[in-house]
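Lecture notes, part 5. Sequence design as translation. It can be helpful to think of inverse folding as translation between two languages: the language of shapes and the language of residues. The source text, in structure tokens, appears below.
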């Protein structure tokens, strides 16, 4: 009897293998052959789950988003306001080995993803992905008196998003320590502190 394969799980495994190859060997080494070798399967078996290599790239970007979302949920549970926002930013900004590796991988994806047709699962990890959590944290901070009531949340959210992109690029081109990355995010909030 043929083995039953969970297609979604297999797609995730293939995407994870691509991420491993990109993190370990660099984007220039990411090929269908390298991904298949990482999984210990024949290259042709990848195409049972994806229509082409661009779909694998999209799935890998979506996998980073999914992983980051899980970490954010775990890190922010039970927190409010500035503490919640700070915990969220620590999962997105390149402040430890995991998030620094993700930054190098994600920044490497940007050029490739920009040339692909839009897809619902091509989510590159950005603060836009977690916009509701950021807005809630800012609203809580205003309600709790941590931020001024007239804090322009849309503008602050846009700045945080830009800083996230920027600090990921900075990490790739001029690595910084965690405090430097967080200081930029904290600087955005400074004018609005109560």
């Amino acid at each position: 009897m043929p083995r039953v394969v969970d297609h979604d799980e297999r797609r995730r495994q293939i995407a994870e293998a691509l991420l491993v190859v990109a993190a370990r060997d660099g984007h220039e080494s990411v090929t269908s052959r390298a991904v298949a070798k990482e999984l210990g399967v024949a290259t042709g078996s990848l195409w049972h789950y994806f229509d082409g290599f661009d779909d694998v790239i999209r799935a890998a970007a979506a996998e980073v988003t999914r992983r980051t979302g899980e970490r954010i949920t775990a890190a922010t549970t039970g927190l409010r306001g500035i503490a919640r926002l700070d915990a969220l930013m620590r999962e997105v900004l390149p402040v430890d080995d995991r998030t620094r590796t993700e930054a190098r991988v994600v920044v490497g994806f940007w050029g490739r993803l920009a040339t692909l047709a839009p897809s619902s699962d091509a989510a590159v990890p950005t603060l836009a992905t977690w916009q509701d959590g950021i807005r809630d944290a800012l609203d809580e901070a205003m309600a709790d008196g941590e931020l001024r009531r007239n804090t322009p949340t849309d503008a602050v959210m846009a700045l945080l998003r830009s800083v996230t992109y920027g600090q990921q690029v900075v990490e790739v081109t001029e690595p910084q320590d965690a405090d430097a990355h967080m200081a930029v995010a904290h600087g955005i909030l400074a004018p609005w502190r109560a």
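The translated text above is only one of many valid answers, since several sequences can fold into similar shapes. The mean pLDDT is 88.
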